[in-house]
Amino acid sequence: MSSAFTPTSPLRQRFRPLWWLAITFIAISFVTRVVLLIMSGNEVAHTPLNLLYAFGVGFGYDLITYIYVAWPLVLFLWLVPTRRATVSGLGQWLLWILALALVYALCLGVLYALYRAHIGMTWPLVVLFLLVLPIPGFAYVSRGGQWALYGLALVLLYGLLFVAASELVFWNEFSVRFNFIAVDYLVYTNEVIGNIRESYPIGRWLALLVVGALVVFAIGRRGLRARDDGSRLWQRGKIALLWLVLTVVSLAAVNGGMKDRTSNNYVNELAGNGIYQFFNAFRSSHLDYAKFYRTLPDDQAFRLVREGLKTPDATYLSDDPQDLTRAIRRVGPEQHLNVVLISVESLSGDYLGTFGSKENITPYLDSLVSQSLFFDNLYANGTRTVRGLEALSLSVPPTPGDSLLKEHNNENLFSLADIFNDRGYQSDFVYGGYGEFDNMNYFFGHNGYRTVDRRDIPKGATIHSENVWGVADEDLYTLALKQMDDAHAAGKPFFLHIMTTSNHRPYTFPAGRVSQANQTRPGAVAYTDWSIGDFIKRAREKSYFDDTVFVITADHCASSAGKTSVPVNRYHIPLWIYAPKHIKPQRVERLMGQVDIAPTLLGLLNFSYRSRFFGYDLFQLEPGRERAFPATYEKLGYLHNDVLTVLEPQRKLEQMKPDYATGDATPITPQDEGQIDQAIAYYQVASGLFRHGGLVRRPTDSTAVEPLPAAAASVPVPASSTAPATASSIGSVPAPTH
Length: 738
Hints:
Sulfatase, membrane, cell membrane, alpha/beta, 12% strand, 4-stranded antiparallel β-sheet, 8-stranded mixed β-sheet, disordered N terminus, disordered C terminus, 738 residues, Alkaline_phosphatase_core_sf, elongated
């Protein structure tokens, strides 16, 4: 083997283009890292230690990534015949195509078995197989072989530059390298490509990338000279085998979390490689909690959760230590009011004047604070819309990897809609775009909701504005009002969950609504605010308005970036519960998790029902037991008593005292083992129940629960659990103690 790599050896000649690709790739990665560092601004101090870590560790990840990136060229250099084509004639080409198709099918099967990756996620493999397809028709040392090598090199070069440019755009939006969001982009290409086209001058950028690729190619094309004095396929196969071994070893020995060793998350992200992080997120999209995270014995985990979910109004219905079913019993009759739950796209608490913003872009929502039951310290489950929808509909902590909205076997789960449906409500999920995105229509349609989306807008209806994500919010609310009118006309109370889209890039909205500029985030937030005010104004004209509760919150914040792995300030969202005839305006300062919204709403309606929710009715909870579950797709946070515990893959964890204003955090020493056990228990139990069917709705869940007798009202409850006034007691209940 050593003699095969003398300076003039055929193998050395044949595989010399790998050096060209290595130098080109490392240079592009270095420049990308420099630009991202500049874009990070003051978030990264330019100290020698930070720079050495970002670029030193980054170089290591670049080398690992190069092994993957080089595979198309390795296959080309291995398989292309040296002096004459090996495949010719229709029969041979058909056999070659069939062989490739079988290999492709095998790859799909392996990826599905390992990562449950369906064809919508693996379509880029088609590009690789298209590159391999013509290889046997060339002779490497011929003119055709040389031009084929040039062509492949140009394709790879353009692809690397395209990825680098995409990373800059992605960083500008999320302040991280490619992650699970980028993996989703593979599946929902229509919305993603449409969003990019509507947000950026994509044609000009693509043209500039072509020019850039040609310039770089012209400078380095001497490194792509096709020379081979007589290597054989089996000799070249040794190099391909070596490359395969390097690939397998790197997959087993290296993971995306190994770079996360500094206290500054921006530095950790800079130390990564976008392409590597993309594949790491792909591998992590279906994380098995029990396999990757710290665990407790199941009996201990369930015991902690059952103790944690106890409230004065709840009674466990089974002695089974792994059954969370509780009877929630309230005093007096239920109030079957209409409910409209609006989850607003990316409505960060930072945008509100109520929370200190000076931009004056939410005047209506700020004015609604004094007219509503308003919650000051609510924290979202995650950084994606699906996490918010999951928390609001299922009241569960986020499971690692994909949201339950996108998991397999997510049908017939115990949901908020089920509780309303048992009382004769019409439950709708209303979305202004196409509900196939993020699997929303499938999930809601199989979990108690009727799905209503862009297709249900009547033909000829006025559409004031639309983009790839959906119609303008005011047109979405027009669609929602129609569902409300229809349900009321049919004599049914209604529960609507409305998901907005206008506060999303490209931030377009109808002209003349607000003074802020179109296609800007402040303009989109201001329009979001205006459209909610317009919706409430139109709803006020309806006969059912006085008996309707409006619940307004966010799916998640507009930004998820911060110096820490889970910056809590990027999870702070508002919550209004507005029903002027039924709910007394108050401000509630207690900590609240997004999973608590559904149980708290049901408590305000005085519902008695069966529940397996992980959330609380906040007004039935003793002070000091509040908690929230801020998380990413793989870092699972548990916020309780001003301590943030973060569970991570490889059974790692962090525990810190968070700064709620800046998102920074100070590590806690020694760690609070009790809180660590609580965090583990909630996430382990939630994930395990879903995996084993424990979150599925049961026929007995519809069993009516008798309310407590009026005499029970004399039983003292904690002062902080005093509920706001409902229809049966308006004006008679003092404000909660905070």
